[in-house]
Design brief:
This protein is α+β, with helices and mostly antiparallel strands. The protein contains 3 helices and 15 strands.
Length: about 230
């Protein structure tokens, strides 16, 4: 009976956007959480909140990415230092595959962690909240994006200041903006492969609390924390 129930649950999770082929262990963990919730409900306990069993899934259509893994600040003297790779101790920017709590060594020998950041604003992510700093700094934001097929999709990015976008192993977009310039939308095409894609954003910012906003122009997506899925 449990086998049949797990098969039904797996089918339903697949239909709403979960892709467990990348990490089969995640399926086992998800089924254990759901089985515990269902067993408790059968014994008269209330069902737990969705976020307690990893079903707090959001649907977006042309809306913004709000949840990221972030890392920073890495202090720099000026925007001229923007091109430095501050992730060399984890394979470099093109190879970055962080996870929550992952600790890396900064260029000065200090320790810094990747942490989850869920923006309180639906339309932007404030770097001053995600990675507080008092001076010119570099910060990173990371997410994954699962695509049903190889494709290119249009991205709209709003940010004032230096920004670079990496997808999988490639630098896709770079703009050495001026922090005091007027914010404007910047559009570029993001090449995606079928399956999981790794998205890394790199920002130059300062204590003014600069914010970025990014979305896919023509896609409907779902997410569970920093993991996004094109429908």
């Amino acid at each position: 009976m449990r086998f049949i129930r797990n098969g039904i649950i797996q089918f339903l999770l697949h239909k709403i956007g979960f892709n467990f082929s990348v990490n089969p262990k995640a399926l086992e963990n998800q089924l254990n959480l759901l089985d515990k919730a269902i067993s408790g409900f059968s014994d008269g306990e209330p069902l737990p909140p969705a976020n307690n069993i990893r079903l707090d899934i959001s649907t977006h259509s042309g809306q913004y990415f709000q949840f990221w893994l972030t890392c920073g600040p890495f202090p720099v003297k000026s925007i001229a230092d923007f091109t430095g790779d501050f992730l060399v101790h984890m394979g470099g920017e093109t190879a970055a595959r962080p996870y929550p709590g992952m600790e890396i060594t900064d260029p000065e020998g200090g320790k810094i962690r990747w942490h989850k950041f869920d923006s309180p604003y639906r339309h932007e992510v404030n770097l001053g909240l995600a990675c507080p700093t008092e001076s010119n700094s570099i910060a990173y934001a990371y997410s994954t994006l699962d695509s049903p097929a190889d494709k290119e999709t249009k991205v709209i990015l709003n940010y004032k200041g230096g920004v670079a976008v990496y997808c999988n192993d490639d630098l896709i977009f770079e703009n050495m903006g001026v922090p005091d310039a007027a914010t404007s939308d910047q559009e570029f095409m993001l090449p995606l492969k079928e399956g999981r894609n790794h998205i890394l954003l790199k920002f130059e910012y300062n204590s003014s609390g600069q914010a970025f906003a990014i979305k896919l122009a023509d896609e409907e997506i779902r997410n569970h924390k920093q993991k996004y899925y094109i429908q």
